[in-house]
Amino acid sequence: MLTIQELEAGYDESMVIRDINMHVDDNQVICVMGRNGVGKTTLLKTVIGILHPEHGSIQFNQTDMTTLKPSQRAKMGIGYIPQGREIFPKLTVHDNLLLGLEAGDQKTIDEKVYAYFPILKDFTKRNGGDLSGGQQQQLAIARALVSQPSFLLLDEPTEGIQPNIVQEIQDVILDIKQSSDTSMILVEQNLDFVKNVADYVYVMDHGSIVYESAVDDIEDETIYRYLSV
After folding, report:
1. Which residue pairs, CB below 8 angstroms and at least 24 apart, start in 93-99?
2. What's the total number of domains in the chain?
3. pTM for this structure?
4. Boundaries of domain holding 118
């Protein structure tokens, strides 16, 4: 479904990620791990098109999308949940979700997103900025899901979130995985969470992939060594 080859990208003259090679199959959840500042968010921003690579290619469903705009990638079926949520605080929950429809061909909000996050249906008229951090994260995920993407990019969805909402997010990822062919790249620091939802793990350090493994074969000590400060 998604193949990244020899990808290099960064900001101005500074290269942040180098020689990234990665493949994601249909209905596969890939997790990218690593301490803060190693290039995980830069990788996702390059995949979605916010950053343009200096070298390498990104193929999606056998189409080269290396130079496409973020809006074009969204129309191809890629959803993006950024770190920090980036919801619109002055818009209602309902209006935030309507904006998510712009990425796809759907005209109405799928009731399934309310089944995933029932609190959002109770708060449809509440401004996004009035929600708690965990509720804003639920809204950010729901906004990406309303367009029914075939591929999701999630940047640290459990960061700073209370345990009960982390469990809800985990359940949603597992349900999507079990009920559709949707694939995901998930940036995450919580190894227990990763083991529960992911199929394969890549670990980054200093902008490059330094370790990769199927989840069932993960060496915990190696992972923790690259996560420690």
Report:
1. 93/120, 93/123, 93/124, 93/125, 93/126, 93/127, 93/128, 93/131, 93/139, 94/124, 94/125, 96/128, 96/139, 96/143, 97/139, 97/142, 97/143, 97/146, 99/143
2. 1
3. 0.93
4. 2-227
pLDDT above 90: percentage of residues in the chain: 86
Q: Quick: pLDDT tens for 155-213.
A: 999 988 899 999 999 999 999 999 999 999 999 999 999 999 999 999 999 999 999 99
Lookup result for tokens 């708690």: 132
List the CATH number of the domain containing 104.
3.40.50.300
